[in-house]
C-alpha cells in the first residue's frame, strides 16, 4: 500500500490475534479520531480467523490503515514491537484490537503532551462488560494520584491486589523520540503486564509520565479477554521480567526499592494462591493446606472469589436485554436510546412536544425507545416530576440523581428540596409585599449546562452498548455518543433550533438568549458528531447540508393532529401560547407594549389570554392594560382555549427554531397573525393561511380586521386547517426520519414527502 510521504503526528499501534469479533469496531474507532494526521499500524499476531480480511476491507476505504505482514503467534509484546518498528508518527498510541477510543482522545493527549513536555501520557479507562455489568472507570473514585507519576509511584500502583488503581492497565501515549533514544521495547516474554513493564523501564531512564482524568479510552471485557486472567505461566514470566528489570537499572533510592519488593511479594502471593486453587481443584486438600501454611498471604487471597461473588450479587448486573420482536410484516425493531436534558415529562412545552412527536412516530413504526437524562439538572428547583401518560412511548425512563416511583421522579439531592422550599417561601412572602431577593434564583436552562464526568458515566451505565440508534436531544447532547459504547449505532441529533444564529437576533432586539450562547463553529462541531441531523424546518436543513456535507439531513416539522372543522372562536379574545424562554418573553412584551394598545383603540373589548409559563414570567403589566390581559399560566388542556379564541397571535422577534405553537394553532383551525420570525423556514408552506406582519401598526391592523370580519376570519381559519392537513401530516413530517431508520439513507423517504429528509452526501 502506498503511504503519504508526510509524517503523521500519531501512530496508533494495534496488535491483534484472532480478534475478528471486535476488530472492525476498534479500527474504525481509531480512524474516526478528530485528529486526522494519524496512521493506524496493525500488527497481526498469527490470526487464523477473518481478522486480515476485515482489516483489508477497511484499509481499502482509508489509506491511513497500514497492515503489516502477519507473523507467527508471539504474543502482544512481539506484535507491538513490530508495530513500533513500522510506526512513522511523532507519537505512539497503543490500542488493543477489541477496545474503543473517544473521537477526541488523541487530539486531547497530543495537546497536553505539547503543553507539558511529558514523554508518556495516559487517560482514565472505562471498562465495559459483555455480561451486562455496569461500566466502571479505573481511576475515578479511587485513591488520589498525582498528575505526574514517578517510578516509585508507578510500581506501587502496580502491586497486585493493592489499594491503588493498577496503572499498568492504562494504554500509554508515547513520544516516539523517547522510545528511539532509549531503545526500550516490549518484553516478548510477557503476555500480561507488558504495558507496565515498558512504561516502568522508560520511567527508569528519566521519562516523564502524566495522567489525565478524562475518561476517553474504552476497555472491553469479554469472555476472550486475557488481561484480567492471571495464569501461572504469566505470573512466572512477570517475576522473571521484574528480576531482569531490577538488575538492569541497578540500586534505586529506598522508597523505590521498597515498592519493588512489595510488587514482587504480591506476585509471589498470587503464585501461592494459584497453587492453592490448583490443589483444591485436583482434590488434594493436604497440598492446598501446605501451600497455605507456606504462604499465608496467598491463602488470604482466597477472599477474592468470595468478595467478587458478593459484589456481583449486590451490583445485580442488568441482563443484556434482547430487543422486543418487531410486529409482523414490519422492518427490524431497533433499540433507540434518547439522551436528553430537556424536561420531557409530557407535551407541556414546544420542545417536549416536538421530541415526543418524533419518538411517537418511531414507536408506531415498531421501534423500542428508552429515555435517559444523564443529569438531574432538568429538575431545576422542582424535586418531584410527574410523567404524563404520553411518556408511555418509552419502554424505560431514567434520570440520574432521582428515584423512580411509579409515574413520578423524585430528587435524591436535599439541595433541590431546599431550593423548592425557598421558592415556595418567596412566593408566599411576595404576596405580603416581602420576598427573598438574592436567595431565590432561577435554575439554569438545563439543555446547555456543562457535562460532568458523572453524566457521561451515567450514559454508559444506562445504555451499555445496547443501542441500535442513539438520539441526542439538542446539539449540546452529542458528547454522549461515544459513552453509549455502541460504535455501530446510528447517531442522530435533533436540532430544535440553530442557536448560533440567535445571538445576533437577540442583540438587535436588545435582549439576551435564555438558553445558550454558542458560536457557529462550536455548534457545527457538536452537530457534526452525528450521522444524521434532524431539522425542524427547511431553511435550517439547507444550512446544515451546506455546512456539514458529510451528514444526512432530515427535515421533520412537527406533525399536526387537525380538528374536524375550522374554529372561528367567540367574541374578540386573542390567544398567545408560549413558555418562559427569551424569544417568547421578548415577543410578548413587544406585543403588549406596541400592538395591543393599538388593537384596543379600534376594538376596546379586545382581550389577550396568555397560556403557558410566559404569562407569570412577563412581570407587572402596564396600568393602561389592566383588565385587557388574562394570565392563564399552565393549563392542563389548551383545546378549549384555542376553541374560544377569535385570533391566535405569534409575535416572535428572535429565535427561528420550533414551529410547534404555530403548527398547533393551524391544526386547531384558527386564524393566525404572526411575524416573519415566527414563519421563518415554513413561510412558503403557510402562505395560504398566514402572511408575515412585522410592523406593530400592521400587526394590529391585521388582528383588528380579523376580529371585526367573521367572514374573513372563517376563510383564514379554513385555510389554516387545510395547511395543517396537507403540509403537516404525520406521514409527511416523519417520512424522512423513518426512512433513515429503515435504510440508513434519506433519499428513499425524500420522494415520499416534500418534508422528507434529503441526503447531504
UniProtKB/TrEMBL annotation:
<dbReference type="Pfam" id="PF13692">
    <property type="entry name" value="Glyco_trans_1_4"/>
</dbReference>
<feature type="domain" description="Glycosyltransferase 2-like">
    <location>
        <begin position="11"/>
        <end position="136"/>
    </location>
</feature>
<dbReference type="Pfam" id="PF00535">
    <property type="entry name" value="Glycos_transf_2"/>
</dbReference>
<protein>
    <recommendedName>
        <fullName>Glycosyltransferase 2-like domain-containing protein</fullName>
    </recommendedName>
</protein>
<dbReference type="InterPro" id="IPR050834">
    <property type="entry name" value="Glycosyltransf_2"/>
</dbReference>
<dbReference type="GO" id="GO:0016757">
    <property type="term" value="F:glycosyltransferase activity"/>
</dbReference>
<dbReference type="InterPro" id="IPR001173">
    <property type="entry name" value="Glyco_trans_2-like"/>
</dbReference>
<dbReference type="InterPro" id="IPR029044">
    <property type="entry name" value="Nucleotide-diphossugar_trans"/>
</dbReference>
Amino acid at each position: 500500500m502506498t503511504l503519504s510521504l508526510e509524517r503523521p503526528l500519531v501512530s496508533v499501534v494495534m496488535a491483534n490475534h484472532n480478534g475478528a469479533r471486535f476488530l472492525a469496531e476498534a479500527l474504525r474507532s481509531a480512524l474516526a479520531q478528530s485528529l486526522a494526521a494519524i496512521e493506524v499500524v496493525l500488527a497481526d499476531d498469527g490470526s487464523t480467523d477473518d481478522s486480515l480480511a476485515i482489516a483489508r476491507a477497511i484499509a481499502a476505504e482509508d489509506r491511513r490503515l497500514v497492515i503489516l505482514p502477519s507473523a507467527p503467534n508471539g504474543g502482544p509484546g512481539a506484535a507491538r514491537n513490530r508495530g513500533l518498528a513500522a510506526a512513522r508518527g511523532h507519537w505512539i498510541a497503543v490500542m488493543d484490537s477489541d477496545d474503543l477510543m473517544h473521537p477526541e482522545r488523541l487530539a486531547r493527549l497530543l495537546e497536553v503532551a505539547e503543553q507539558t513536555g511529558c514523554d508518556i501520557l495516559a487517560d482514565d479507562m472505562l471498562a465495559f462488560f459483555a455480561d451486562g455489568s455496569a461500566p466502571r472507570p479505573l481511576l475515578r473514585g479511587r485513591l488520589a494520584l498525582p498528575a505526574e507519576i514517578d517510578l516509585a509511584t508507578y510500581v506501587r500502583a502496580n502491586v497486585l491486589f493493592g489499594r491503588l488503581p493498577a496503572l499498568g492497565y492504562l494504554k500509554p501515549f508515547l513520544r516516539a523520540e523517547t522510545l528511539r533514544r532509549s531503545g526500550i521495547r516490549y518484553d516478548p516474554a510477557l503476555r500480561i503486564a507488558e504495558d507496565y513493564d515498558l512504561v516502568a523501564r522508560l520511567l527508569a531512564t528519566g521519562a516523564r509520565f502524566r495522567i489525565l482524568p478524562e475518561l476517553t479510552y474504552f476497555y472491553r471485557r469479554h469472555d476472550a479477554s486475557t488481561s484480567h486472567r492471571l495464569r501461572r505461566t504469566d505470573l512466572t514470566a512477570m517475576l522473571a521480567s521484574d528480576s531482569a528489570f531490577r538488575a538492569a537499572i541497578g540500586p534505586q533510592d529506598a522508597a523505590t526499592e521498597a515498592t519493588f519488593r512489595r510488587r514482587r511479594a504480591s506476585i509471589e502471593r498470587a503464585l501461592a494462591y494459584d497453587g492453592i486453587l490448583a490443589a483444591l481443584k485436583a482434590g488434594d486438600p493436604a497440598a492446598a493446606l501446605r501451600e497455605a501454611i507456606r504462604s499465608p498471604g496467598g491463602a488470604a487471597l482466597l477472599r477474592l472469589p468470595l468478595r467478587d461473588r458478593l459484589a456481583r450479587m449486590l451490583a445485580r448486573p442488568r441482563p443484556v436485554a434482547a430487543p422486543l420482536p418487531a410486529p409482523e410484516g414490519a422492518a427490524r425493531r431497533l433499540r433507540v436510546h434518547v439522551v436528553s436534558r430537556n424536561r420531557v415529562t409530557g407535551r407541556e412545552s414546544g420542545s417536549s412536544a416536538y421530541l415526543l412527536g418524533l419518538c411517537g412516530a418511531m414507536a408506531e413504526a415498531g421501534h423500542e425507545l428508552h429515555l435517559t437524562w444523564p443529569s438531574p439538572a432538568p429538575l431545576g428547583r422542582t424535586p418531584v416530576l410527574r410523567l404524563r401518560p404520553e411518556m408511555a412511548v418509552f419502554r424505560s425512563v431514567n434520570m440520574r440523581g432521582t428515584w423512580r416511583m411509579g409515574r413520578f421522579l423524585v430528587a435524591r439531592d436535599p439541595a433541590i428540596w431546599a431550593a423548592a422550599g425557598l421558592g415556595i417561601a418567596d412566593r408566599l412572602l411576595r404576596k405580603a409585599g416581602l420576598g427573598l431577593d438574592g436567595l431565590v434564583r432561577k435554575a439554569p436552562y438545563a439543555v446547555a449546562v456543562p457535562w460532568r464526568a458523572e453524566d457521561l458515566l451515567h450514559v454508559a451505565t444506562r445504555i451499555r452498548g445496547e443501542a441500535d440508534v442513539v438520539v441526542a436531544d439538542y446539539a449540546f447532547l452529542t458528547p454522549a455518543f461515544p459513552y453509549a459504547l455502541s460504535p455501530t449505532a446510528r447517531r442522530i441529533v435533533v436540532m430544535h433550533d440553530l442557536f448560533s444564529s440567535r445571538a445576533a437576533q437577540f442583540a438587535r432586539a436588545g435582549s439576551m438568549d435564555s438558553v445558550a450562547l454558542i458560536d457557529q463553529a462550536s455548534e457545527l462541531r457538536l452537530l457534526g458528531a452525528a450521522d444524521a441531523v434532524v431539522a425542524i424546518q427547511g431553511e435550517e436543513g439547507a444550512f446544515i447540508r451546506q455546512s456539514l456535507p458529510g451528514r444526512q439531513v432530515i427535515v421533520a416539522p412537527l406533525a399536526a393532529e387537525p380538528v374536524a372543522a375550522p374554529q372561528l372562536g367567540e367574541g374578540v379574545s386573542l390567544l398567545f401560547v408560549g413558555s418562559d424562554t427569551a424569544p417568547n418573553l421578548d415577543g410578548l412584551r413587544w406585543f403588549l407594549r406596541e400592538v395591543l394598545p393599538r388593537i384596543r383603540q379600534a376594538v376596546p373589548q379586545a382581550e389577550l389570554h396568555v397560556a403557558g409559563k410566559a404569562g407569570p414570567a412577563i412581570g407587572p403589566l402596564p396600568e393602561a392594560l389592566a383588565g385587557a390581559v388574562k394570565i392563564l399560566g399552565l393549563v392542563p388542556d389548551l383545546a378549549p382555549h384555542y376553541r374560544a379564541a377569535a385570533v391566535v397571535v405569534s409575535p416572535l422577534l428572535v429565535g427561528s427554531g420550533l414551529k410547534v405553537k404555530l403548527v398547533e394553532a393551524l391544526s386547531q383551525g384558527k386564524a393566525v397573525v404572526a411575524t416573519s420570525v415566527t414563519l421563518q423556514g415554513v413561510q412558503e408552506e403557510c402562505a395560504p393561511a398566514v402572511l408575515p406582519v412585522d410592523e406593530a401598526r400592521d400587526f394590529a391592523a391585521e388582528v383588528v380586521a380579523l376580529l371585526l370580519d367573521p367572514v374573513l376570519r372563517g376563510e383564514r381559519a379554513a385555510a389554516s386547517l387545510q395547511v395543517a392537513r396537507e403540509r403537516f401530516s404525520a406521514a409527511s413530517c416523519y417520512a424522512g426520519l423513518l426512512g433513515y431508520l429503515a435504510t440508513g439513507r434519506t433519499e428513499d423517504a425524500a420522494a415520499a414527502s416534500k418534508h422528507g429528509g434529503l441526503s447531504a452526501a
